[in-house]
Amino acid sequence: MTDDENEPLLDDDNRHHTYTSLHSYITTNDSHPRTSSSTTFATGEKLLSGRYESLDYECDESEIAHMEEKRLGYRYTRRLIILKWLIMLLIGICTGLIAVFVDFSVKNLTKFKFSYVQNKLDICLSEHCLFKPYLAWIGINICMVLVAGFLILWEPVARGSGIPQVKCYLNGVAVPHVLRLKALIAKVLSVIFAVSGGLAVGKEGPM
Predict the structure, then answer these.
(1) Strand pairing of 53-54 and 173-174?
(2) What are the phi and psi torsion angles at 97 (to 5°)?
(3) Is residue 193 in some structural domain?
(4) Which among 9, 38, 74, 191 would be 20 to 30 A from 19, CA to CA?
(5) 85-119 residue pLDDT tens
(6) Is residue 176 included in any domain, yes or no?
């Protein structure tokens, strides 16, 4: 083999190409085993996937699992299926009740905001102090948005629509803290105050 055949076709002045045998590469890497915590990119950044674990959604199709199903019998399997459907029904009912609560709260907070500013406006039309209802409008919106912001600081996983977290979870990625009661409370209340505060957000995504 000539020297020209050993030359790389694409060369870079900033890189030094070294050629090692497969045996030496394997023995070198085996002597320094890599762990998941030390896995990094070439730039030194840690892998983001190292912070998350996967969920086991695979059904057990082993012979032992089939023997266990036969031992438990048809009645147990039927009760398990009915229980799953009842859980899904309860989840749907709870989701609907939360949606009604969010819609009711947004409607009443918005009604209070408009009525308060309208009263200020009616008073100031005769007294020539229109800046007061304007400041009241801005102040109420700022207060509601601040409440929503503090709720997100309290539970950061509640930020955003929540759709990416749900997609990850359904695809087998265990996102930390996404199914906690704290996240639910922060999500519901932050949506209420963010929408009532006039932000360009909607409650459809979190629902």
Answers:
(1) antiparallel
(2) -65, -40
(3) no
(4) 38
(5) 999 999 999 999 999 999 999 999 999 999 999 99
(6) no
